[in-house]
Amino acid sequence: MPSRRVIFAVVVFLSGTQAFAATTVENIRVWAEGGRTRVVLDLSRPAGHKIFTLRSPDRLVIDLDAGRLSKSITELPKATGAIAAIRTGIRANGQLRIVIDLRETVRSRSFTAGPNSKYGDRLVVDLQRFENLTTVKRASEKYVRGRDIVIAVDAGHGGHDPGAVGRGKTREKDVALSISRLLAQRINAEPGMKAVLVRNSDRYVDHRARMEVARRNKADLFVSIHADAVDDRRANGATVYVLSLKGASDEAAKRLAKRENADSRVGDVSLADKGEVLASVLLDLSQNAALGASLDVGADVIGELARIGKVHRRSVQQAGLIVLKSPDVPSILIETAYISNPTEEKKLRSASYQNKLATAILKGIRKYFHENPPANTQIALNQAKYKNSARISHVIARGDTLSEIAERYNVSMASIRTANHLASDSVRIGQKLQIPVSSGT
Ligand SMILES: [Zn+2]
Prior knowledge:
Layout: E1 23-33, E2 36-43, E3 49-54, E4 59-64, E5 67-69, E6 83-90, E7 96-102, E8 106-113, E9 121-129, H1 130-140, E10 149-155, H2 172-188, E11 193-197, H3 207-216, E12 221-228, E13 239-243, H4 250-262, E14 265-266, E15 269-270, H5 271-283, H6 291-308, E16 331-338, H7 342-349, H8 351-371, H9 378-387, E17 391-395, H10 402-409, H11 413-420, E18 432-436
Parallel strand pairs: 1-5, 10-11, 10-12, 12-16
Antiparallel strand pairs: 1-2, 2-9, 3-4, 4-7, 6-7, 8-9, 13-16, 14-15, 17-18
Helix pairs in contact: 2-8, 4-5, 6-8
The chain binds zinc ion.
């Protein structure tokens, strides 16, 4: 982390020609009360800035764009409250860096204030001691527990129905079950989410029964896991279809049957068999308000699948089927890859690719539900809670990780993910995150 080292003890002033756009820090005022220490920078004009904390030793860093310290400041504030010392320096990029050495780990909150009768533009930083925060956090955990979002994970085929079979004899029913189990594990590890496996062994489950499992468990989403097969062994990539749970459509049946009939055999793959299964899943079409949800969650899943490998189609497929209205349970069917493609067949067999697929599918589902949490779910309640609470923004600095940031602010990673609709735990330098903190701090 270079910022730890690039701190100048000497204040260097900008030359007069550069100074016209500069923001002058006219004064630095500091006071402490209870567990809180407030730092106010009186500015000549509003300025772009970044504020972040560092550990070992604890420091808070304020980088002020094109900033400089007024010559009238001859002495920086002495140790006060959480502050051990204040140092300043000019960085190579012209930023004024103010480093506040801290006596202890604090949570920081900052805001800007416009001129009033007494002061001009100000940048205010509040430093809050951790021990107080712990109490607040404990108190805030007594929230009404909402229900889990339920995902029915359906491993396609099974038992006497092997699904598609690759040239290397890989059976679709087996890879579908492996990926489904991995996906269910990930969903169950997710706060506020729960998986129901439609089948957890090599047995055939009738299609109506599959849907029935989803309905009985009041699933918020039905995800059917498959692997595709076609004559052309070069065909590759994942495809996501939307499907629905009831009320078959004849026109859809005809169109799908036509498409499936065009495919004959791939090696040992009986496409007629596969077509029938796919058809029966896709044909359980109904017409109500959840198709939009199916399309949206499908798009989020495709987006994540595209990050780990090829996708056959970038958009959710419902082409070839009649215009659907919506299913009563949002439902998607994922053709994870082409088992008829020798390269993809090999990948589908590998634990590492199965894991990648499961993770990508989870991320897509998580993204969707964090953006669209059903009412009364824990995720919805958490969001409402954070919406009403104060937020600190944190700009990602080099070396920051989500887990460190969560630790630094004494909040959960899940709450940061929720507040920022993050689909993954990766962050990039310069990214601005909202850190939800309990109100009352
Ligand atoms: Zn299948």
